[in-house]
Amino acid sequence: MAHGGCGEIISGLQNFDRSSVASVVAAADKGGATHVDIACDKDLVKLAMDVTNLPIYVSSVDPSAFHSAVQAGAKMVRH
């Protein structure tokens, strides 16, 4: 980012639409974000990792979903 700091891009806690998430992640990558936060889903984590090298954070209201997302490559979880 031009001015430094945290450039987090959030695709949405309940956004499980693969096309939408891929678009948000690609835009975050091109826009200089420091990381992206996506819905907690192992397949979305894999998709995001195919689109960018940015760290992937996942968010969920259900902590039982975190394990598989971390195994898929998520770097941080948020409850």
TrEMBL record:
InterPro entries cross-referenced by the UniProt entry: Dihydropteroate_synth-like_sf (IPR011005), Uncharacterised_Ycf23 (IPR007570)
Taxonomic placement: Eukaryota, Viridiplantae, Streptophyta, Embryophyta, Tracheophyta
Keyword vocabulary terms for this entry: Plastid
Pfam families noted in UniProt: DUF561
Annotated PANTHER family: PTHR36895, YCF23 PROTEIN
Keyword Plastid: yes
Protein name as annotated: Uncharacterized protein ycf23
Compartments reported by the entry: Plastid
Family membership noted in the UniProt record: Belongs to the ycf23 family.
GO cellular component: plastid
